[in-house]
Design brief:
By secondary structure, the protein is α+β, with helices and mostly antiparallel strands. It has three domains: about 1-100, Rossmann fold; about 125-195, Dna Ligase, domain 1 (2-Layer Sandwich); about 200-325, ATP-grasp fold, B domain (D-amino Acid Aminotransferase, Chain A, domain 1), CATH 3.30.470. It is built from ten helices and twelve strands. Strands 10-9-8-11-12 form a five-stranded antiparallel beta sheet. A four-stranded antiparallel beta sheet has the order 4-7-5-6, covered by helices on one side. A hairpin with a 2-residue loop joins strand 8 and strand 9 (about 210-215). Helix 1 crosses helix 10. It is globular. The two termini are about 15 Å apart. The relative contact order is 0.15.
Length: about 350
C-alpha cells in the first residue's frame, strides 16, 4: 500500500485565473471527481492537502511515499510561484510527480520556450516580446494575437486578443498589461502572428502520446479565458475537443516535435504541447505546459480518452467516465514511480 500526499490549489485564497478571481462550484467539482477516481485505486492511500499557509509545516512532518503535485495554480494560487512547491520538495528530498523547478521556470516564459524550440529545429509562430515600458513594434503581417508572456489558463485572453491592425494591437497590449498589473503579475506581453489553421494539442504521459484538436465556435477561432472559466459565458462549452482531422503525416510531425521538446525542456511524467497549423498545414509550436491540467475534462484526459468517448461526454460530468479517468491518473502515478 503506497501512501501519497496530493497537493492542490488553495480554495481559501483568491485566484485571478478563475472566474471572479476565486474557486467556484465547478472548480470544487473537478476536485471531487479526482478524489472519487483515485479512491478506485486499491493499492494506494491518498491524503489531500490544500492549505498553503501550512504547507511547510505539513512537509516538515512528511510521512508518505511521495507527493502527487497537482497544484497547477502555484503556491498561494500565484502562477508565478508555481515552481516554489517543487523547490520545497527538493530541499526536503521528497519525491514528487511532474515537472522540476528548472522545467517549470523555463516553460513559464513563453518566448524562451519558442526560442529553445527553434534552436532544435522545431518551427514556431513568429513573435515579438513587449517588455514593460517598451514600444510595440512587430515585424510580421496582421492579424496578430496578443497574450501574456508569463502564465497559463488563458488568463488575459478575450475577444480582442486577435488584432487586425496597429491601433488594435496597441490598445490590446495596454489592456493586457493593465490586467496583469491588477493581478500583481509580470506584465511582459507576447505578440504572435495569428495562424488560421487547426489547433492541436499533444498530451504525453511517460512514453505514450495522444493528440486532440480544438473545435472553436464559428465566430471565435481561439480559446477565450471566459470559455474555460465562466459558466455564464455564451461561449461556455462551445469549444469542444475532437479527434484530429489532419493527415497522419502532420500528426507524426507533431508527435515527433512534442517528444523532442519533452526531452529538451526537461519535462517529467506528463506534459502538454500546443500547436497551430499555418497556411501550408505545417504545425508550429505555441506553448509547452509541463504541469498541465489534470481534471477529468482537461486536455490531458480528453486526449487519452477521445477514442472511446464522444466529444459531448466532456461537457457535463457523467459517472461513466470515472473508470477511464482513473486509468489516466494511474498512468501518471506509475510513470513517476518508475522514475523514482
Amino acid at each position: 500500500m503506497k501512501k501519497v500526499l496530493v497537493l492542490l490549489g488553495d480554495p481559501r485564497l483568491s485566484d485571478p485565473v478563475k472566474n471572479q478571481g476565486k474557486f467556484n462550484a465547478e472548480d470544487l467539482e473537478v476536485i471531487d471527481v479526482l478524489k472519487k477516481a483515485l479512491s478506485l485505486l486499491s493499492n494506494y492511500e491518498f491524503e489531500y492537502f490544500d492549505e498553503h499557509a501550512k504547507l511547510k509545516e505539513k512537509l516538515a512532518n512528511f510521512n508518505y511515499d511521495y507527493v502527487l503535485n497537482f497544484c497547477d495554480e502555484g503556491l498561494f494560487n500565484n502562477a508565478e510561484l508555481e515552481s516554489e512547491i517543487p523547490k520545497m520538495l527538493d530541499e526536503l528530498k521528497i519525491k514528487y510527480t511532474g515537472a522540476s523547478v528548472k522545467c517549470l521556470t523555463e516553460c513559464f516564459n513563453k518566448i524562451r520556450v519558442k526560442e529553445k524550440a527553434r534552436g532544435i529545429g522545431i518551427p514556431t509562430s513568429k513573435d515579438v516580446l513587449v517588455p514593460n515600458g517598451h514600444p510595440v513594434n512587430v515585424n510580421f503581417c496582421f492579424p496578430a494575437f496578443v497574450k501574456p508572456n508569463y502564465g497559463d489558463g488563458s488568463f488575459g485572453i478575450d475577444r480582442n486578443s486577435l488584432v487586425k491592425n496597429e491601433s488594435e494591437l496597441k490598445l490590446q497590449v495596454q489592456n493586457i498589461k493593465l490586467k496583469l498589473s491588477e493581478a500583481g503579475r509580470k506584465d511582459d506581453v507576447l505578440v504572435e502572428e495569428f495562424l488560421e489553421g487547426y489547433e492541436i494539442s499533444a498530451a504525453v504521459i511517460g512514453n505514450e502520446i495522444r493528440l486532440i484538436q480544438e473545435k472553436f465556435p464559428k465566430n471565435i477561432n481561439f480559446n477565450l479565458h471566459e470559455t474555460k472559466w465562466n459558466p455564464e459565458s455564451k461561449y461556455w462549452n462551445e469549444t469542444v475537443s475532437i479527434k484530429p482531422e489532419i493527415s497522419f503525416n502532420v500528426q507524426n510531425k507533431i508527435k515527433e516535435y512534442s517528444l523532442k521538446l519533452f526531452k529538451e525542456m526537461g519535462c517529467r511524467d506528463y506534459a502538454r504541447f500546443d500547436f497551430r497549423l499555418d497556411s501550408n498545414n505545417e504545425p508550429r509550436l505555441l506553448e509547452v505546459n509541463p504541469n498541465c491540467g489534470w481534471c477529468w475534462d482537461g486536455h490531458l484526459t480528453k486526449a487519452f480518452l477521445i477514442d472511446k468517448y464522444e466529444p459531448e461526454t466532456f461537457v457535463k460530468y457523467n459517472e461513466k467516465i470515472l473508470v477511464d479517468y482513473v486509468i489516466v491518473l494511474e498512468k501518471i502515478l506509475k510513470t513517476a514511480e518508475r522514475r523514482f
